[in-house]
Amino acid sequence: MIHWGFIGCGNVTEKKSGPAFSKVEGSDVVAVMRRDIDKAKDYARRHGVGKWYDNAADLINDPQVNAVYVATPPGSHAEHAIAAMRAGKPVYVEKPMAASYEECCRMNQVSAETGIPCFVAYYRRTLPYFLRVKQLIDDGLLGEISTVQIRFAIPPYATDYDRENLSWRVKKEIAGAGYFYDLASHQFDLLDFLFGEIAQTEGFSDNRAGLYDVEDTVAAAFRFHSGIVGSGSWSFVAPQDTRTDRIDVVGTKGKLSFSTFDFSTILLESASGIQEFSEANPENIQYYLIQQIVNYLNGRGELPVSTGATALRTNCIMDEILG
Known about the structure:
Elements lengths: L1 E6 L3 H4 L3 H6 L3 E7 L3 H11 L3 E3 L2 H5 L6 E4 L6 H10 L4 E3 L7 H14 L3 E3 L7 H11 L6 E9 L18 H4 L3 H17 L2 E9 L10 E8 L4 E7 L8 E8 L2 E5 L7 E5 L2 E5 L9 H11 L10 H15 L1
Helix pairs in contact: 5-6, 6-11, 9-11
């Protein structure tokens, strides 16, 4: 039985991940930690968790906790994950894996030294929507893949206009970079899952609107080991009525279009016409990955699809793009 302790119990744990740990067979949540003890106690009360802490070390050293979910901002992922692994407890870390490629390397080094596994919350690898995308590609319906293009644009968030109350996601010391690190990490991990490792990357980034100090505009070109070439553009300061979330995959026999976050209808264009596909997500979107991890830790399943080794590659790519 896997008895989880959460370091961090903020918004991501309310629905996306937290309830799944108790729904999966062979798993439960026995303790949570947050620096604000009242908020930790409130979360524990609402979710039926028996213990709460305001100190990460106390949770890690709780003898009832035998696995740790790190759900803090990226700037503290390495610290908490390394402490847990050195205590002999497997870790599941929110994405991106850490605030820099170097910190990811340290985490993987400790995992190798201790023999304790580290998993990362790139749950899109397990969702039916993206498994359908992978199936369409792997079945050869596009022919020989030539290019991949990412286009992403959203307007600023309300908090971006308040310099005194900016989100941690645009504070480099906490997040590693800006919204690019937070959102594009899902896209590059997904491309790694679909097409394998990226071999070469070039990128350009700028701050066009001056709402905060980190990048708000990014462009990149990349090439996979397989020879597939790709490009991407990201704007986090688009007009208020703009939202673009699209990945286009072009092959010699067809074109596939899908989204990363909106889960819009998957479109396959080929000589047979246009085909549409849609898939439903689980109520708790991280459920299938958490299920894989729990089964593996309980000795009932194969190695999960998102590990420190796969997640490291995404941090490497993002750091190269941002220079």
